Amino acid sequence: MPLVRIDISADTPDGTVAAIGDVIYEAMISTANVPEHDRFQIIHRHASDELVYPAEGYLGITYTKNIVFIQVAWNEGRTIDVKKAFYKAIAQGIHDRTGHRQEDIWISLIDNKKENWSFGNGEMQYAP
Amino acid sequence: MPLVRIDISADTPDGTVAAIGDVIYEAMISTANVPEHDRFQIIHRHASDELVYPAEGYLGITYTKNIVFIQVAWNEGRTIDVKKAFYKAIAQGIHDRTGHRQEDIWISLIDNKKENWSFGNGEMQYAP
Amino acid sequence: MPLVRIDISADTPDGTVAAIGDVIYEAMISTANVPEHDRFQIIHRHASDELVYPAEGYLGITYTKNIVFIQVAWNEGRTIDVKKAFYKAIAQGIHDRTGHRQEDIWISLIDNKKENWSFGNGEMQYAP
After folding, report:
1. What value of ipTM does the predicted structure carry?
2. Could you tell me if A65 lies within 8 Å of chain C, comparing CB atoms?
3. Which residues of C touch A107 (CB under 8 A)?
């Protein structure tokens, strides 16, 4: 059920974009108990003035034009420890797979209800 | 107040995109008690590698490159039965109007608070 | 921590787009207690049929093709008065800086949890 939006520079090689999607999916399975094949992702490619971050950095983190914004909507109920492990697996995994700086991996979650999804066919597959 | 994001293949004919927006708006009115003229929608057209779904399908549903992601932010308080009727009206209506497969209609809701909207003019029109 | 999506016509001059981002950031600091340098914004430029609003208007507000959709995800806990001031500062500020009609400034908030953010490095910087 997670729906993932990935906002990324249009200069990013296609293979890197695909690898980032792979890492996020794998992190969901390994850290957050997401079922296999539950992979739904939307990529938004952007011109350089469309991804805005503070030139001075924030909280000691600095950013480059390679910043990747990852926004995940998924079901509520995951613990703080699960979310911590999820962040770490994504940043580390993207760095290992693509060479992207870990500082440029920016993640935001939206917790949602089980009944707020239809995976197709007009059905509420996760009805309580 | 619903804000609807529709993420769709750039290959989709413009008339189909418009019809999908019409169906979603009409489903809101007929099933979810949304007021007339409360229609605010954002269309994102995507290259083929930007809409990611599992090749194996999920929960018995299979997808094609014509998958349509519909993300609706609206006010909390709607019942499970209303949401079920809303999903069904959208998938059925899009299929009837455009021939799109119902399996390719993917819907996600974000429930929100009444004070979280400004419809223009810097005002909080739904202030509690 | 706010993550701001700004959906705007592709016909908007680049300077206007930048000014709108500036105003939103400044409104966060002046009205909503957001820390300095906490500026993360995603711009989506759109073709004219991709920003959909009611031709008849809604709640007495009328819209033009210059409508700007602003969707802000940030931490929960802000009061209704803060949100009112935030809306007003954005609409007024954009009008003053760019000449945009205040009626065309459309804002939606998503309230979030402190643990739902990673600002880079795979860390949960706001861990409770």
Report:
1. 0.97
2. no
3. 117-118
Q: Are A94 and A100 in contact (CB under 8 A)?
A: yes
What's the burial of C55, exposed, middle or buried (CB within 10 Å: 0-12/13-18/19+)? exposed
Residue type, A27: A
Instruction: Count contacts between A and C (CB, < 8 Å).
Output: 103
* Per-residue pLDDT tens over the stretch C12-52: 999 999 999 999 999 999 999 999 999 999 999 999 999 99
| Cross-chain residue pair A87–C124, CB shorter than 8 Å | yes
Q: What homologous superfamily does CATH list for C3-116? A: Macrophage Migration Inhibitory Factor (3.30.429.10)
Pick the CATH number of A3-114 from 3.40.50.150, 3.30.429.10, 3.20.20.140, 3.40.50.2300: 3.30.429.10
Q: Compare CB distances from A80 to C3, C35, C128 and report the shortest one's residue.
A: C128
Distance CA(C37)–CA(A58), nearest Å, equals 6
The CA angle C110-C78-B117, to the nearest 5 degrees, is 45
A73-84 pLDDT, tens digit each? 999 999 999 999
Say how far apart CA C40 and CA C21 lie, in whole Å: 9
**Number of C-alpha atoms within 13 angstroms, CB side, residue C70?**
33
Angle at A31 between CA A92 and CA C5, to 5 degrees: 70
- C43 interface with B at CB cutoff 8 Å: no
